Target: Regulatory protein RecX
Amino acid sequence: MDDKLKQKLKNYVLWLLGRQEYSRRELTFKLQQKEATDEFIENLLDWCEKHNFINEQRYCEGFVRKHIFKCHGLKRIQSEAMGKGIDRSLLERVVEELEIDWFELAQDAYNKKYSNTPANLDYKDKAKRVRYLMYRGFSYEQIDFAMQSQ
Model:
């Protein structure tokens, strides 16, 4: 790789990071698409971490907050975090620090979707609502709490 291409890739990474936070894994993938060498990618991302352009803790906190705002449960957050390359122990630490009430979040998600519907449900409607909350990543206990509170 020549110096011109290296500088172009460095500018590309800085441009990406200027728009939003990225995990190291996401940036590695983007640079691999641009056909950068593995050695160059490692050096560039180490440089970015050294200058605090990439911070996995900060990225993870933003990721979790975004999903909480969308009323997603822990299972959904964990699943999507694996796809983004977030370390599981880091994710658990961030979730613990935020002290999230998953039962209340499940109730909020349920009320957002079903606040204007009748409370008496047949089996089919109840199953549909349970599937909706399960897709959003809540446990059975949290779903039961959310549905009982209506």
User: Anything to note?
Assistant: The longest helix spans residues 3-19. The two ends are 62 Å apart (CA to CA). The chain has a mean pLDDT of 91. The CA atoms of residues 88 and 144 lie 27 Å apart.
